[in-house]
Amino acid sequence: MSTIIMTRLQTLVDRNPAPLILDTTQLSRVFNHKSLFALPAHIEFTESEPEDWERLAFLGDNVLSLYTSEVLFRRYPRAKTSFLTNRKTLVVSNDQVARLSNAYGFPNQIQAHASQITVVRNSVNARAAVFEAYLAAVYLSEGTERAENWIKPLIDLILTEADERDASEEGEGSDEEEEEEDNILSAQSAHMPPTPRSLPAPRSSTSMSSSTSTSYASSASQGGGFLALFNQIASQKRIFPSWETSRTGPDHRPMFVATVSVNGREEGKGQAFNKQTARHLAAKEALRNLRWHTE
User: Fold this and answer.
1) Are 129 and 123 contacting, i.e. CB atoms less than 8 angstroms apart?
2) Using one digit for the tens of pLDDT, what is the confidence trace for 142-199?
């Protein structure tokens, strides 16, 4: 984990300390590992409420899940449920929750049997569980508003980090690389590179038979994709397509729109959360509109 990310979390923790739990009964359970009490594992009900954190952790896990779902719903109004589910899984994962627990110093307060104390304090699952137990105790003793005001900024931070990683992986700061790629493709088109073995040579420079188009469709699905196929055919036809890419949306979730024109006429348009996919979709549409490809 980078120093910048760790510093950002610690800064938030300093500004957003864990709420005090005034209910001493709940507080006493938060940091107690079950090894202190040696209850038989097969017993489902006890004579009194267990004194370890497990019941609180159960509740805290669900409280965290609820608040995470609400933050996701409001933060990404255009996102489909598959994206929301993936983000939720990230936030509520034991690794992330244990990271929050570490930042608040909860593991050092864990109480366990002397023979297990070191193992338990170093366990990712235990560190996550003690954080969830603390959240549940805040929720029960200090109220939902206090719990919400504490946990939501932490959820937002994790999501911001994930958005920044996505932006970096999806082409943020890659304009120069894409311009270089375009220049290379233009140079290749001008010098008519030999056709790769995986793509059959067209029968003429102006038209293709349906069987050739079918072969190109197969090539697009097997390797390189529609963008590579579009560039290859354009090169063979000595056509120089013009690309334009625009960006809209917030910084944490940009939307890219790519258009490709041939001889001054727009032939393909694609929209996606990253630049390369938008160009891929535009190339696919252009292949269809130009009758260079049949599905």
Assistant:
1) no
2) 999 999 999 999 999 999 998 888 877 655 444 544 554 555 444 444 444 444 434 4
Residue with tokens 């590579």: 228
Cβ neighbours of 200 (radius 10 Å): 15
**Global model pTM greater than 0.85:** no
